[in-house]
Amino acid sequence: MARGAARAGGQVVNRAFDELRSRLGEVWDLRLTTWLLEWDQEVMMPRGGAAIRAEQLATIERVTHERATADEVGRLLDELDGYEDELDPESFEASLIRVARRDWEKARRVPTDLQAEMARAAVDGFELWMTARDTSDYTRFRPAIERNLELRRRYVECFDGFDDPYDVLLDDFEPGMKTAEAEAVLLRLREALIPLAAEIADAPQPDSAFLTGPFPVAGQKRAETELLRRLGFEPTAWRLDEIVHPAAYSFGTADIRITTRYSEDSLETLFSAMHEFGHGLYEHQIDPALNRTPLATGVSLGLHESQSRLWENLVGRSLPFWRGVYPLLAETFPDVLGAVDLEAFHQAVNKVEPSLIRVDADEVTYNLHIVLRFELERALLDGTLSLDDLPEAWNVRMREYLGVEVPDDAHGVLQDVHWSSGAFGYFPTYSLGNVISVQIWGRLKTAVPDLDDQIEAGEFGNLRAWLRDHLHRFGRMFTPRETLERAVGGPIDPEPYLGYLRAKAADLYGVAPRA
Amino acid sequence: MARGAARAGGQVVNRAFDELRSRLGEVWDLRLTTWLLEWDQEVMMPRGGAAIRAEQLATIERVTHERATADEVGRLLDELDGYEDELDPESFEASLIRVARRDWEKARRVPTDLQAEMARAAVDGFELWMTARDTSDYTRFRPAIERNLELRRRYVECFDGFDDPYDVLLDDFEPGMKTAEAEAVLLRLREALIPLAAEIADAPQPDSAFLTGPFPVAGQKRAETELLRRLGFEPTAWRLDEIVHPAAYSFGTADIRITTRYSEDSLETLFSAMHEFGHGLYEHQIDPALNRTPLATGVSLGLHESQSRLWENLVGRSLPFWRGVYPLLAETFPDVLGAVDLEAFHQAVNKVEPSLIRVDADEVTYNLHIVLRFELERALLDGTLSLDDLPEAWNVRMREYLGVEVPDDAHGVLQDVHWSSGAFGYFPTYSLGNVISVQIWGRLKTAVPDLDDQIEAGEFGNLRAWLRDHLHRFGRMFTPRETLERAVGGPIDPEPYLGYLRAKAADLYGVAPRA
Fold first, then answer.
1. ipTM score here?
2. Are B267 and B297 a contacting pair, CB within 8 Å?
3. Is the model's pLDDT at A205 over the cut of 80?
């Protein structure tokens, strides 16, 4: 019957497509609203607004879920079956129908009430986490993580056909990827990086004492603004704010907002800003024709993180980049950097050293932080690890993987925001992103042979254009796997990333490269 | 039947009340969302976000209107008829039902599509206005005002039983007030203030040249922050931002946001901040138990403006206030104010002088700006004034009422944001607020006999408490008329306000007070 209607003529079908598109547009407006309420809560809202904001977010989530899962959307999708078959699968229309169908079928499995409860628990959990972290008091955080975990178990029960319950959670962040695939990548990283970190630890260490500053914040802000301007930050479409947790947000392709934080004793804000710029640029360079559709965002968190890591590490920790930018920085902070030469600075910002905090970790040890979180959240989900034992389990693995002692929970299990808002299954995407960033970089180096010279000259136009044309513009038109295939010509593969880290270790530490 | 259900027992009725309250809570969450999207658009959003924001606002308006006007709300209100009769009319429950019924009946008259069109036109109009004002080009603004006017005419057609079409527009801002009542107040002001302004113009003028500064912006921000802190601004519940148009926003009683602007050649930001503080304080001191209900906001714009004007003028331009604050200001700007004594400063900030811009106008001539806008928007609505003739009509009245020549439309018809977003019927409430502020002040002086001393000492606790107890806490529980009656013991009356202005004219200009 549905197909009959579709075959009845273009007129009918186009009306159904237009109606679907209009409904999806409304749902997208509501989703942008949720994200804006969250941005506002973290960046702008006075603390007193928290209780009402939690209710408000729950209401918007409920309305969004109701509209996204309306019977009428299913009816329109049925009606469009035949139309879809006639379309080029790579067209906007076919992609929109395909993605809308997948989203609808997934969302229909989750009751509106559960969706609203998860939203409310996320907001409450964030507030609890802030207090718990500030006081290094895990017991204040425990009710939040317990509640979120309970809700995620109910969420998993809404689905079937998975190999592992964790598949369901991972799918929210890396659609289509199975736990087993992610695990294979992560175990390969663990296997290779624990010995690499040990080899580096045995090598002579570069001096990085000057990286503790002091770097007056006003100077950091000036340097950061200039650096972002060179990369492509334009005030008509971007904004930068200061909060405790760096992040990137998009409210359409021409409203991109990134956040960072400043500390006198570190230049981390520069790397964090390049990281968030990478996230923002992905959203900014999506084809504007996809705006107000569910195609108008990055296709997965792994792909997203590949973009932030590309700008933070492959651009932002490279020698060509600092050849271009270091004079500005040395001028800005003459007291600290006046006597430090370019090579010494480059060595220092690439120093490998096991540490307590994930977001401050170097490229080599970072992934061990991720492996730890991945293993712990899987154990929490399947019940083999109790919440009472979580902090100790954290500390044991930190010792085992990184050889560091956790002095208190603020520097341990309380350091990340993710679990406070129920984002289990999120962490692996950080390492997937690291891996993918180097696969993409390999392609880029071939496509733009003088890339290093361009980076040194502060010319990022070709780099941005390549990323736009081979990755960003597609948004969610294709699956993450298909999107990756388009960008790098194959599936995820940790070896180029490991090769890149080993080459850097050889270059900066004299650690012998392996075959 | 509905009453039968109500009489059937408390259980049934309470369920209906709870359900009504839950639905109203959702609608209120959505309204707060619209206001937050608007705040964000004006304060934070990169310009590139405008097109999507317009769609997003239209979607939220549509969803809100659908939910606010749902049949189910009407059914619940019917069901609660009997319950309402049994309640104390001054109780929370009775007030909520009464106000919800009035809101529902009013909203049901306006089709969802029209509501959405008005929202979209408001956003588009704001963008056009900004461009038009920046280029002083009325022709760019004309399509926006034309569109808004057409939509407002269609809006008026949704109602009946009014004496004047303008009643319908005025009712959105000053519920229950008729055009004839507002007109009587405004004509009385026009009649009394044109001659008073003339008398003052003939008197010796105080020196106010030093008020053009320069006042370095950093110093203004410091002074303003301290001043607001003394009045009662606390960062846990308030924030202050800088934009082109000063305003106050509330997202719940503990999330109050005010905006201001800075100019080196003026101290207007201090008065504008006190003005917006007054608006914010009204919302902040509403009984928190009213949060997430339609009772949780100021009852009318006239009452609201009475609060902003009270802080801006009756506190903020008074001699006792500056006795307490002037030393701080003189210290902050020694180059300009070092040689200016308190009395000279007080005279200067109360200088009466006809000028082009409403928001910069003194207390006497301000109301003549309002009379002009009231007359013009009534004439636009009833078609006796064409949009082609609007700028000239503006300029003619400026000459007639204020004796000033308008050099260009940026300093004339393009100066205010209101018409760009379709807010016809809004302007009179500014003068109603001026009038009411002095009625309230009279009561306050009786209730707090040493008010002047407290103000001089920077003690505003009793002032805030009186306003909370006699006005703010009620929110929308009663009608504006009833609320005014509670606060001042009678209806609106321009004579105390005129008496106040004449007394000030006598004091500062030696203009003889009238009988």
1. 0.89
2. no
3. yes
